[in-house]
């Protein structure tokens, strides 16, 4: 199986918790700072920002918590991956911003690209049994 070595299940649990809860916190920020996030989204040309900001907030919270607890990993990781695939180039288009914003947007772009890699890894592991998981929707 995928988690046979000593301690690997615990390390995987820690990875899930860190990854999932950071994303859930990010989603919570979409809801708590909705006005600021909607304004930023509108400035980036996002249509229906009033709907999409809270909707993606819920998407991040649900996906993040599900990964952290080990429930519906394929759906959760897929939802996170889709969000990151869309949001990263549209919200953090470092190549299209003024020079004074370029470094900040590039950092956010690279952070999101890294998170996308993590989401894809969890998606790939969605077909194996996860240790310390609630087990709903696994394999």
TrEMBL record:
It comes from the Archaea. PANTHER family: INNER MEMBRANE PROTEIN YPHA-RELATED, OXIDOREDUCTASE CATD-RELATED. InterPro entries: DoxX, DoxX-like_oxidoreductase. Pfam families: DoxX. The chain crosses the membrane at residues 12-32, 60-88, 109-128. It is found in: Cell membrane. Keywords: Cell membrane, Membrane, Transmembrane, Transmembrane helix. The keyword Cell membrane applies. It is a multi-pass membrane protein. Its main location: membrane. This is Putative membrane protein, DoxD family. The keyword Nuclease does not apply. GO terms for cellular component: plasma membrane.
């Amino acid at each position: 199986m995928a988690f046979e070595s000593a301690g690997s299940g615990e390390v995987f649990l820690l990875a899930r918790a860190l990854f999932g809860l950071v994303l859930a916190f990010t989603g919570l920020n979409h809801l708590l700072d909705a006005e600021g996030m909607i304004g930023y989204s509108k400035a980036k040309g996002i249509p229906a920002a009033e709907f999409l900001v809270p909707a993606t907030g819920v998407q991040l919270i649900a996906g993040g918590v599900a990964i952290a607890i080990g429930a519906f990993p394929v759906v959760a990781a897929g939802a996170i991956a889709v969000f990151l695939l869309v949001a990263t180039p549209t919200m953090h288009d470092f190549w299209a911003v003024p020079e004074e914003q370029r470094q900040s947007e590039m950092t956010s772009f690279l952070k999101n690209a890294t998170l996308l890699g993590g989401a894809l890894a969890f998606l790939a592991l969605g077909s194996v049994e996860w240790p310390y998981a609630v087990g709903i929707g696994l394999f």
